[in-house]
Amino acid sequence: MPQQRSVETRARILDAAVRRFAITGYDAASVDDICAAAGVSKGAFYHHYPTKQAVFLALMQGWLGMIDLGLGSARKDTVPETLVHMTNLLPGVFAAAEDRLPMFLEFWLQASRDEKIWKAVIAPYRHYQEYFAKLVDDGIAEGSLKPADSQVAAQVIVSLAVGLVLQGVLDPHGADWEKTARASMQILMNGMAKS
Amino acid sequence: MPQQRSVETRARILDAAVRRFAITGYDAASVDDICAAAGVSKGAFYHHYPTKQAVFLALMQGWLGMIDLGLGSARKDTVPETLVHMTNLLPGVFAAAEDRLPMFLEFWLQASRDEKIWKAVIAPYRHYQEYFAKLVDDGIAEGSLKPADSQVAAQVIVSLAVGLVLQGVLDPHGADWEKTARASMQILMNGMAKS
DNA sequence: ATAAACATACCGACTGGTCGGTATGTTTAT
DNA sequence: ATAAACATACCGACCAGTCGGTATGTTTAT
């Protein structure tokens, strides 16, 4: 049973880490930086986390879990309604994430090179894929979508979402991404909806 | 006027750099590593490039230029034909890029944090956007596509492409990305084509 | 000769991680 | 109650090694 002070310190480390990572990136953010930002000694840091990577991983787990939760609670009456509802949520996502989005990019990058991180990323990621595949299947079953390979359709949806988020990161003021997101979904629906 | 030997050395440095960057990433790839892989001394390295970042930038310019060129020569009779033709090219792109794709991710990441790199990335990137917008406009003009906001449509196409590439990086064996790319284009066409 | 091309030796800054020791609880024995 | 015994939390100096970049010398081509 950890002491009260302990959980507070952990939180401060995590909070400082996410800020530093977001600004400078994983590599450039030194443990000393993070400790300074957290107002915590290096000893405390390594008392709570075995390595710098462990902090990164903890951060990742937390976020991926939150996304998972958000997806689950977005369900509406019909499948098309659910999908449209999700695009309505996007602006909030963009606004809330803002400067943290580069970190997601970093997640991907690290995951593509580090076995341990890859496994931590890929599980929830595949879960999203499954979620959308199931959604498409439901849509087909309820007659609102044309019969199709739901796995592939889910991949398309996820690809589009990933691409939108990424471009939002790279070029936030290059377009009205909210509008684009809506238009994307519209085109997708045109292509997938029945009749 | 550079000597023959000089352009060869430059090429060897660039070639070694792309290999090291691809494997270990930009930060982890040390200049010494690159020099060793290129069979070139550190003096030679800094004789030809002022900084490590300059090498990175040169690499980027080269690739973005090549993509630009590839796009230009993909034009077919009608717009839908052109777009489909492009998905046919994708497998080659995936295969050829393979382990180099993480580098593109790194481009983005660095671009989102470094003003100089951002400017180098954003120009060709906007050029792609324009290319696709023009393509959509042509499609509307020739009557093969429904009237629509071509800028937004282009963003959707690019988003999808970006998302596909990114997922190909993260999870190369998680799906048949060639098939998904084709399906994406099919759905897009269903949504955008006239009648 | 001389200037470009290349090689070697080196510098100072910085990094992730360790370690001996201290301070702050918490449990146990009396 | 309280003091000894133990456990957890924390500190900050320190280390061994790495890095990007520079200074200086040598080779090569004209």
List keywords for this structure.
homodimer, mainly alpha, elongated, 195 residues, 9 helices, DNA-binding
Provide a compact summary of the structure.
The structure is a homodimer of 195-residue chains. Chain A is built from nine helices and no strands. With 195 residues, the first copy, chain A, is mainly α.
List the helices and strands and how they pair.
The structure is a homodimer of 195-residue chains.
Chain A: H1 4-24, H2 31-38, H3 42-48, H4 52-72, H5 79-97, H6 101-113, H7 115-141, H8 150-170, H9 177-192
Chain A binds a DNA duplex (30 and 30 nucleotides) through residues 2-3, 5-6, 9, 30-32, 40-44, 46-48, 51-52.
Helix content of chain A: over 70%
Largest sheet report of chain A: none
Q: Mean pLDDT of chain A, rounded to whole units? A: 88
- The number of strands of chain A is 0
Largest interface: A-B, 48 and 48 residues
Global morphology of chain A: elongated
Low-pLDDT segments of chain A: none
Gyration radius of chain A, rounded: 19 Å
Oligomer: homodimer
State the helix count of chain A.
9
Estimate the strand proportion of chain A.
under 5%
Query: Class by helix and strand content of chain A?
Result: mainly alpha
End-to-end Cα distance of chain A, whole Å, is: 59 Å
What is the N-to-C order of secondary-structure elements of chain A (H for helix, E for strand)?
HHHHHHHHH
